[in-house]
Amino acid sequence: ATGRAMVSSTRLHGRSALRMCVLNHLTHEDDVRWTLEFLARTPVPSHLLAADAKDDSALAAAALTPQGRAMLSARGFVRSFAAGEPVVARWATDRDFYVVLAGQLQVRLGDDVVGELNPGDFFGEIAASDWGSGYGYLRTADVVSTTGATVLMVPREVLSDLLESEPAFRARVTAVR
Question: Could you tell me the pLDDT band of residue 151, with boundaries at 50, 70 and 90?
Fold first, then answer.
């Protein structure tokens, strides 16, 4: 927004990261330093700092062992949504998996409500599935917070690790797919 620099995002070890790729031959060291200082003094959104807010009982209900819950605590992101706010949109290309920590959500196809999600439920397993070379599936429905909700966003790489290391969780996810 300042017009001084352009950064993009990437995935690094399953987490979102900023990426700065200097291509302009007129870019100087002062420009890079200004950008880094700007980022250092920019407030981080609170949902990215809420690692301690994970509701362990909801994760236990998702058939995760203490080791699986610890993995999510280290590698997942807590997000809160107001009532009526969309969590994911049909046909979107994002690839995160979600576990409902608190509140209620509706799964919608157009104007039809086709499902309700409560703490311990999960969604996004289809879009998070990777069938090779980074290709995956689009979102197949809208998911909207109905009461105000808190969810744990799980990068697809973490979901893949969980499916390998958590047999009960893998069985639960596979049964839904």
Answer: very high
Name the DSSP class of 129.
-
What is the distance between the alpha carbons of residues 39 and 27, in angstroms, rounded to a whole number? 17
CA angle 113, 177, 89 (to 5 degrees): 45
Residues 6+ apart with CB under 8 A from 142: 86, 88, 89, 90, 107, 108, 109
More confident residue, 65 or 117: 117
Q: Which helix H or strand E contains 146, and what residues bound it?
A: strand 142-154
Phi–psi pair at 155, nearest 5 degrees: -60, 150
The answer to pTM > 0.90 is: no
CA 19 centroid distance within chain: 18
The predicted pLDDT at position 70 comes to: 83
